[in-house]
User: Fold this.
Amino acid sequence: MSNTYKDLQNSHPCFGGYKNNAGRIHLPVSPGCNIACKFCDRSINDVEERPGVTSKVLKPEESVDILKKALDICPDIKVAGIAGPGDTLATDNALQTFKIIKEKFPDLIKCMSTNGLLLNERAQDVIDVGIDTLTVTVNAVDPEIESKLNDYIIYHGKKIEGVEGAKILIENQLEGIRKVAAAGVTIKVNTVLVPEINGDHIEEIAKTVKEAGATIYNIIPLIPQHKLKDCKPPRCLDIDGARTKASKYIDVFRHCQRCRADAVGVPGVSEFGDQIYQRRLNTK
Ligand code: CLF
Ligand code: SF4
Assistant:
C-alpha cells in the first residue's frame, strides 16, 4: 500500500487540504498524558464536541470489534486514528492497537497523533508498527513561548517545569519529526493558536517544522478552558491571517473539526460515534 502525500490527499480527511469525503475512526485507547498543556481539559462524557473528550477508554484488543462495527456502518472509513484522550506515547496502548490493526485491517491507514515528548526515543517503534500518517502538536518552537502554554513535562519519571521542560519538549518534537519523516512517513503538525501567546510565532513554527520534515500544517483555534480560560479565542481574521503566513512555508490544512477522541465518520459531514461507542444521546 502506498501512502505518499499525493495518495493521502484522496484518502485521508486531515491530509487532503480539501474535503475528499474520506472517513476516520478514533480509537480512544490512550488515557494518560505526560505533559500539562494549560488549555487542556480531558473529560469522559458523551456530549462535548472537542479534543480530549471521549465516552470511554478502550483496551487495545477491544478495538477489533469496534472497527468491524464501524466499517459496517460507515464504509467511507479509510483511516484508523488514535488521538487520545491523552498522549499516544505516554502508554504503549496506541502502539499495541496499531499492531493489531496492521494485522487484522491491513487496508486501513494508521494515523497517530502525539505531543511528541517521547517521539525522539520511540521513533523507531512508530516506524516499525507501520504508522502511515503522524501528527505532532507543536505549539511553539521557542521555549519561552512554549512555557506560557505548558506548565510542565513528566520526563523519565521526573517533573520538569517551565522553560526547562519546554526546551526538552521542543527538542524531542523536532528530532522525532526528523527521524520519522526520514523514514518516509507523512507528517502533519498541529498548532493550537492562542493569539496573545503564539500569534506572532506561527511563521517561525511553520518554517521550523517544514525544515524538520513535516509536510502539512494545521492551525487549530484555542478553546478557552482550564488555565487559559480567560484568553481570547482567535477571530476568523486571526486564523485566516495565521494560515496565510504559514502557507509561505508549508501546505496548510484548513478543515479541522476539533474532533473528539472517539469521533467516527467523515469529519464535518457524518458522525456515528453515538452508535459505535453507545453514547447516551443528549436528551436535554
Ligand atoms: Fe484523527 Fe487527527 Fe488522524 Fe485526523 S483528526 S488522529 S489527523 S484521523 Fe483531523 Fe479531527 Fe482536526 Fe485532528 S479534523 S482534530 S486534524
Ligand atoms: Fe492535553 Fe494533549 Fe496537551 Fe496532553 S498533549 S495535556 S492530552 S492537549
